[in-house]
Structure formats: structure tokens, C-alpha cells
């Protein structure tokens, strides 16, 4: 009855289905890999962050391939590496465990004489060259193992799992997240992130009460991982000020998060070499040539992002200019004119750039000047003591701060100094312990290997000191108003 | 004051945390005319709290002083009234990261319990996310809902009084993440799956006993969840101490020639840390998994 009526009206079902389809398509398009996306490749517990660029060779787990075929596929898709390209894997092949199985009861008859596998290294290589898939190779290995049938069922399972891991060539393409990147860095390049373990990073974000709409200071030398993690938790609401040492902020890790562009508008940076001047009220960001030091330091930034490089390269731009001048002397007058024009344009561009830098510095200074930041996160290879004592002054009272160090002793010193100086309560020096488990029927136990340590944290909450109240007075006049407008609108709306 | 946004000054109706000293705190509901007794004397809300800046020192009637702190989910976890066992910050931190929570996330949780985790979730998913929390104990669910309103996060959360194992979360296809802290999580895995978005998401189950973990992992695998991983995290606190270590006296090489000098400097002062005599050695196992796109 109802159906008939609907059909009579005609447009209703069709329109509805069209609407649903459109919605579905829309839904999916957000979840498809696009060219230029930052993605994470995964195989087992191994991750690698890459950008999807057409025809760009990527090396992952000793295999190279291009990511072109991932474009347009859904995030979370598993691919097989086939002759340097990615091929989406067919939906779940059924494990051929049905035709099993003989199995031993224990290992009393198994001898470790190195002769149980009849296939040689060369045989396996030949199989690979013949284009056998990982699974087929594993099957060959099982068939040519003299001891496989004597192994217990559990041992057989373990054997298959081990061999599969070795010969499989599948790659999963994932959307980056703090969880994945923290585990990736910890697994691949712990030295780059001061051995900050993922659970310690998790604690930092929670103890720091990092959330949308707040104003957070970050000082890190962890390749941008900590900064990116903070930005992810802020979701593009509020502001983050990266306090950086040396010539320029290091943010390689932030790129890997693949944040939408508006997130970057909430990110500011401020060189720590100007902290003292800012605190003393002598930092001038108004006129551009009054502060030549600031200009220079920032001018270098655009050329060399890494602080070491920035310092090392100082002479090189001049050298280039000189060589150019020697060239111009041999050139014709017309060319020379053109060169001069070019140089003028370049000079102007530099001026514009400098002006932009100055404006950025002024904006960051304005954020700090109020001394009303909501959070402070420190994770660096520097001695944490001067860093905390210097930057804690920018926090409002009753705000959390958290300091990471790979070593305990410097944090003991921090703890002592903060106790003496006052201005902080609830100080706690901690480290965290994490253990992973194998969970299988009748075979559940902790993993045989565990991380020995994930670094140390000092956390606490700021409180007002007598001097704080005095300092707030004159400062607050320059303070920029209404830092939380965005959030208020969003929550009330 | 709100649990998702800082304010500078204390207002009527706020929750404030009174910091009394080393590991000693208490929460207060700030009300015009009300008084709070502390071991340092009385705090009069109208005079001592309302209009004051969070983080300032308040002098009590007996002359002692305390600090008044802005509430955060972490301070709340340490101060909340226990109606159940609660989750603590170390587990919460890992749950938050491993579930990939961020502003805008839609999360399902059961049970609500005392709301320790709920507050932390709300802080992280605000201002655009939503929490659907299910509690089978009626009184507890009502109390939680009331607390969320008082803490000005009511607009971010829906509290349902039902049994998640029988009736699910009350929503379908909306969640980015699901958290289970119930006696038999394996019975709620299908409901968790139904609540999650089509393109997938993350799930976490917290269980104190390994037998529960075993069953949950089996159920997760049966329902097609991937990346199943179980872990345990503990926090170790290091108490900072100055200790004095006496130095042994082995005497002089020529005892007869020189009379033993009475050295005043026969000990060394050293800054170190000691572990607490007792610590939480087990809270629960955290099992995480990914729901793939179906």
C-alpha cells in the first residue's frame, strides 16, 4: 500500500536514493588518499611517514615502489608491492588452515641441526624471481621443512607467522595521527625525539591539559613531534607559540601530521634569544631597523630551517653574491642592467620578507607579553632548568606545565629550584612503565622484550607570586584582548 | 570556569580546587555566603573566593593560607567523589592518545562511573565533538549528568541510563572511538561496532583481569577488528630528597704517629630520589583495536 503510494508520487524514492548516494560519495571522498597528502605506510609494527607525490620512489623496508596507485584509494587499504607499484589487495584471502594438520605433542624429537629446511637461500631467491607471492613462498617453506609436522600446533602457528612476516610484501596506507607518528619515531629514530616514548608523550599532553582554545607554549627539540601533537589536540582553535633555540624553528615532524592549512595560522614562533629582552620590556618590534639583530636572526630562518645549518651557512649568501658580481663585469651593459633590476627586485622581496618576519615576531611577542599563557610543554635536549625557569614566567597562575627530559638528574635540579623559588605547586617527578602483552588462548603472557625506559617528566601547576601581581599591572595594559573568542563562539553556537 | 575553557577569575557557581599543601586538596562549589572548613581555618566564599584570580593565595581564618586552583580534568580525577572505582591520569592519557581523540571526535563510553575519564574525554573533544556515555546504574547516571551541567560541559555530552551489553550505546554509525570499562566487555563488542562510523575507528577496553582480556580479544578478532594490542602502563613517582651519606673511616696509614683527627667532614650530602614505599602495581589491562572500514 505504502509502496504503491510512493511509486505513484514517483520522485520520492529516486530523489531519496540520489541524496543518499551523494551523501555516501561525499563521505568517502574525505577518506580517500589525494596527491600531496602526508600518509603513513605500515607493515606489521613498522611505520614510515611519506608524502604522496606522483612518480616519486619511496623506499620502505628495503623495497622501493611508487605510491601513484594509492591516490584515490581509501585510507586503511592494504596494498601488495608488485614490481615497484602498489596493487590494492583483494578482500581478505581465507587462511588455508583447513587442510591441516598433523602436529607433534612436544619438541622431544626436534633436533636443531640446521638441516630441517631443504630449500636453500638460492632456491628461495629463485622462487621470488618467479614472482611467487609471500604466502606461496611460506607454503613452499612448510612443505620443504622436515620438522614442521613434528612441531606442536602452537609452534606451527608461530613458524608460519614468523615466515609470513619475513616474506610478506604488503603495505597499509594510513592517515597520520599523533599515536602513529609517536610510535613511528620511537621505533625508527628515537634519537631524533630525545627518546621520548609514546606513553610519555601521551602523559605530557594530558598533564599539560592541552585542549582547544588555549594558548600553549612549546619548547622542543623532538623534530616537531611534540609540537604537532599539541597542535592536533588543539584542533586549530587557540594559539601555539613555539619557543625555538638557534636560527629557526624545526618542524619537519609537524608536516607529517598533514594538518589543514588553517591550523598553521594558529602557530606562532618566538626565538628564545629574545626572551630576556621581552621580559625586560626592551624588545622593540615596532620599527624595523631599530633591532638589526632580530632582523638578521630571522632573515637566516627562511634560508636554513635547522639551527646548526643556519649558523654554519652564515657566510655562504655573501659568497654567492660576490661570484655573481665577478660575472657581471664580463657581461654586456644590457645584461648588467637586467641584473641590477633583478637584484633590486630581490632586495625588495627580502625587505618584504623581513617585514613579514617582523610582523610575525611582533604577533608572537604580543601573545607572550600578557604573561597569561595557559600551558607550557618542554621536551628538549637542553638543560631543562634554565628553560623552565625562563618560560614559566609567561604562564598565568593556576596553569599546568610539564617538562620532559631523557635524564632524571637535571629534573631533580629543576624540582629543587622551583621549590626554592616558589610560583609552582603540585610538583611531581615521574616516569612511566609500559608493557605489551601477547594475548592468545592459553598462551597469554607479557612480551619477551619491553622498553627499558621512556624518559622522565616533571609536572606541576603555577600559582601567583607576590611579584607576579606586581608585574601583571603594567604589562596587562599592552595585553591583546579576547584570546578565546573563537572557542566561545563555537561553544555557545 | 568550565572544564573545557580557562577563566581568569572565580565566579559564583564555579568549582575550585583548594590546594592545602603536599598532595592534599579538596574541591569546593563556590556559592555566595557559603563557608568551607579547612585545617587552616574557614574560607568565606563571598570574601575569599568570588572575584579572586585562580591561582592566588587565600588566607584562612586561622592565619594559614591555601591556593585556589582552576579545575582541570586531572585535578578533578584526584578530587572527585568516588561512586565507583575510577580511572587515573596515566591510563587516561594513554587511552586518549591511543583512541586518537582530538577536538571534534565523537566518542562512546560505558560505564560512566564517577566521570573521571568522561571529563578528560570532554576536555579533549571540545568544542565540536560529542560524548555518548552509558551507565546502567540509574542514580550514578543522574549524578553524572548533573555534574556535567555544573561543570559547564553538559552541551558536549549525552548520558544514557541503560545496559550497554543489552541495549548498546543508543547511537549508530557516529562514533570515532569507543571505550569500554565494564565487567564483560566481550558482550558489548557488537554494540561498539554498530556505534562506530562506517569508515572505521578505534576501540579500547579496560579490564583488571587477564581472563576478561582473553575473552575480549577473541570477541574483537571475531568481529573483524584489527591491530588488536594489549598493554599495561604504570606511573612511577620519584620523591626528591636530600640525603646525607656518612663516609667510613679506615684510619690512618700510620696510626701511631698521628692521633686520629676528628673530622667534621665525614659525610656527603646528595640530592637524589627515592621510590615511594608502596605504589599502584596494577590498575588494569588496556586493549586497543582498530575497526577497519566495512
Question: Can you put this structure into words, describing what you see?
Answer:
The complex is a heterodimer of chains A (493) and B (294). With 493 residues, chain A is an alpha/beta fold. Chain A folds into 2 domains: 145 residues, Vcp-like ATPase, Chain A, domain 2 (Roll); 265 residues, 3-Layer(aba) Sandwich (Rossmann fold). Chain A is built from 19 helices and 15 strands. An 8-stranded mixed beta sheet of chain A has the order 10-9-8-11-12-15-13-14, sandwiched between helices. In chain A, strands 2-1-7-5-6 form a 5-stranded antiparallel beta sheet, with helices on one face. In chain A, strands 3-4 form a two-stranded antiparallel ribbon. Chain A is globular and about 80 Å long. The N terminus and C terminus of chain A are likely disordered. Chain B is α/β, with parallel strands linked by helices. Chain B has an 8-stranded mixed beta sheet, with helices on both faces. In chain B, a hairpin with a 2-residue loop joins strand 3 and strand 4. Chain B has 3 domains: 57 residues, Vcp-like ATPase, Chain A, domain 2 (Roll); 171 residues, Rossmann fold; 36 residues, no CATH class. In chain B, helix 2 packs antiparallel against helix 4. The mean pLDDT of chain B is 94. Classes of the chains: A alpha/beta (493), B alpha/beta (294). Chains A and B meet through helix 6, helix 7, helix 8, helix 17 and strand 13 of A and strand 6, helix 2, helix 3, helix 4 and helix 8 of B. Strand 13 of chain A pairs antiparallel with strand 12 of chain B, so a sheet runs across the interface. Chain B: It is found in: Nucleus. Chain B: One of its GO terms (cellular component) is nucleus. Chain B: This is tRNA (adenine(58)-N(1))-methyltransferase catalytic subunit TRMT61A. Chain B: Pfam families: GCD14 (PF08704).
Amino acid at each position: 500500500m505504502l509502496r504503491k503510494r510512493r511509486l505513484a508520487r514517483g520522485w520520492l524514492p529516486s530523489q531519496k536514493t540520489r541524496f543518499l548516494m551523494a551523501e555516501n560519495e561525499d563521505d568517502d571522498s574525505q577518506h580517500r588518499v589525494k596527491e600531496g597528502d602526508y600518509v603513513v605506510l605500515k607493515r606489521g609494527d613498522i611505520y614510515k611517514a611519506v608524502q604522496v607525490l606522483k612518480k616519486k620512489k619511496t623506499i620502505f623496508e628495503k623495497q622501493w615502489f611508487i605510491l601513484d596507485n594509492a591516490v584515490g584509494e581509501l585510507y586503511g587499504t592494504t596494498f601488495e608491492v608488485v614490481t615497484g607499484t602498489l596493487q590494492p589487495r583483494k578482500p581478505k584471502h581465507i587462511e588455508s588452515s583447513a587442510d591441516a594438520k598433523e602436529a607433534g605433542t612436544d619438541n622431544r624429537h626436534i633436533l636443531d641441526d640446521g638441516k630441517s629446511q631443504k630449500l636453500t637461500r638460492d632456491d628461495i631467491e629463485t622462487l621470488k624471481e618467479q614472482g611467487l607471492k609471500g604466502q606461496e613462498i611460506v607454503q613452499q617453506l612448510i612443505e620443504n621443512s622436515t620438522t614442521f609436522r613434528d612441531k606442536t600446533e602452537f609452534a606451527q602457528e608461530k613458524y608460519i607467522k614468523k615466515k609470513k612476516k619475513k616474506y610478506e610484501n604488503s603495505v597499509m596506507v594510513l592517515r597520520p595521527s599523533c599515536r602513529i607518528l609517536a610510535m613511528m619515531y620511537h621505533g625508527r629514530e628515537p634519537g631524533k625525539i630525545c627518546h621520548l616514548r609514546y606513553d610519555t608523550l601521551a602523559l605530557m599532553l594530558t598533564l599539560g591539559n592541552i585542549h582547544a582554545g588555549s594558548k600553549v607554549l612549546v619548547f622542543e627539540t623532538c623534530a616537531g613531534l611534540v609540537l604537532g601533537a599539541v597542535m592536533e589536540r588543539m584542533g586549530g582553535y587557540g594559539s601555539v607559540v613555539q619557543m625555538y633555540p638557534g636560527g629557526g624553528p624545526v618542524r619537519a615532524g609537524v608536516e607529517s601530521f598533514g594538518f589543514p592549512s588553517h591550523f598553521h595560522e594558529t602557530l606562532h614562533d618566538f626565538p628564545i634569544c629574545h626572551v630576556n629582552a621581552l621580559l625586560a620590556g626592551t624588545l622593540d618590534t615596532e620599527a624595523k631597523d631599530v633591532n638589526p639583530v632580530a632582523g638578521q636572526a630571522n632573515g637566516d630562518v627562511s634560508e636554513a630551517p635547522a639551527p646548526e645549518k643556519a649558523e654554519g651557512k652564515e657566510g655562504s649568501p655573501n659568497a654567492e653574491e660576490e661570484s655573481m658580481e665577478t660575472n657581471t663585469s664580463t657581461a654586456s651593459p644590457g645584461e648588467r642592467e637586467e641584473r641590477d633590476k633583478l637584484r633590486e627586485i630581490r632586495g625588495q622581496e627580502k625587505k618584504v620578507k623581513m617585514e613579514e618576519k617582523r610582523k610575525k615576531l611582533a604577533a608572537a611577542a604580543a601573545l607572550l607579553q600578557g604573561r597569561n599563557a595557559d600551558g607550557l610543554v618542554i621536551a628538549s635536549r637542553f638543560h631543562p632548568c634554565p628553560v623552565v625557569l625562563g618560560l614559566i614566567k609567561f604562564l598565568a597562575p593556576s596553569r599546568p606545565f610539564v617538562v620532559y627530559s631523557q635524564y632524571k638528574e637535571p629534573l631533580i635540579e629543576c624540582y629543587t629550584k622551583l621549590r626554592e623559588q616558589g610560583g609552582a605547586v603540585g610538583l611531581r617527578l615521574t616516569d612511566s612503565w609500559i608493557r605489551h602483552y601477547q594475548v592468545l588462548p592459553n598462551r597469554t603472557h607479557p612480551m619477551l622484550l619491553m622498553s627499558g625506559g621512556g624518559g622522565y617528566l616533571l609536572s606541576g601547576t603555577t600559582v601567583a607570586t607576590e611579584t607576579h601581581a606586581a608585574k601583571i599591572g603594567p604589562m596587562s595594559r599592552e595585553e591583546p584582548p579576547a584570546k578565546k573568542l573563537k572557542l566561545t563562539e563555537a561553544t555557545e553556537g | 570556569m568550565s572544564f573545557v575553557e580557562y577563566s581568569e577569575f572565580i565566579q559564583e557557581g564555579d568549582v575550585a580546587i583548594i590546594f592545602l599543601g603536599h598532595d592534599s586538596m579538596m574541591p569546593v562549589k563556590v556559592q555566595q555566603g557559603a563557608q568551607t572548613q579547612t585545617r587552616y581555618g574557614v574560607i568565606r566564599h563571598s570574601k575569599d573566593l568570588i572575584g579572586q584570580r585562580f591561582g592566588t593565595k587565600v588566607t584562612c581564618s586561622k592565619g594559614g593560607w591555601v591556593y585556589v586552583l582552576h579545575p582541570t580534568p586531572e585535578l578533578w580525577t584526584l578530587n572527585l567523589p568516588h561512586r565507583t572505582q575510577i580511572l587515573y591520569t596515566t591510563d587516561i592519557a594513554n587511552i586518549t592518545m591511543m583512541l586518537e581523540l582530538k577536538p571534534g571526535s565523537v566518542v562512546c563510553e560505558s560505564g560512566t562511573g564517577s566521570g573521571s575519564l568522561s571529563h578528560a574525554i570532554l576536555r579533549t573533544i571540545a568544542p565540536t565533538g560529542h560524548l555518548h556515555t552509558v551507565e546502567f546504574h540509574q542514580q550514578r547516571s543522574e549524578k553524572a549528568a548533573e555534574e556535567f551541567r555544573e561543570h559547564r560541559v553538559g552541551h558536549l555530552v549525552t548520558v544514557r541510563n541503560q545496559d550497554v551489553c543489552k541495549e548498546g550505546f543508543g547511537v549508530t554509525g557516529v562514533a570515532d572511538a569507543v571505550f569500554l570499562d565494564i565487567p564483560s566487555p566481550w558482550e558489548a563488542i557488537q554494540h561498539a561496532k554498530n556505534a562506530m562510523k562506517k569508515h572505521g575507528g578505534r576501540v579500547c577496553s579496560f579490564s583488571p583481569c587477564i581472563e576478561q582480556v582473553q575473552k575480549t580479544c577473541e570477541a574483537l578478532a571475531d568481529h573483524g577488528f584489527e591491530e588488536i594490542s594489549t598493554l599495561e602502563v604504570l606511573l612511577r613517582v620519584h620523591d626528591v630528597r636530600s640525603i646525607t651519606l656518612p663516609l667510613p673511616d679506615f684510619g690512618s696509614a700510620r696510626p701511631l704517629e698521628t692521633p686520629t683527627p676528628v673530622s667534621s667532614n665525614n659525610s656527603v650530602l646528595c640530592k637524589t630520589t627515592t621510590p615511594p614505599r608502596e605504589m599502584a602495581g596494577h590498575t588494569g589491562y588496556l586493549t586497543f583495536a582498530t575497526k577497519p572500514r566495512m
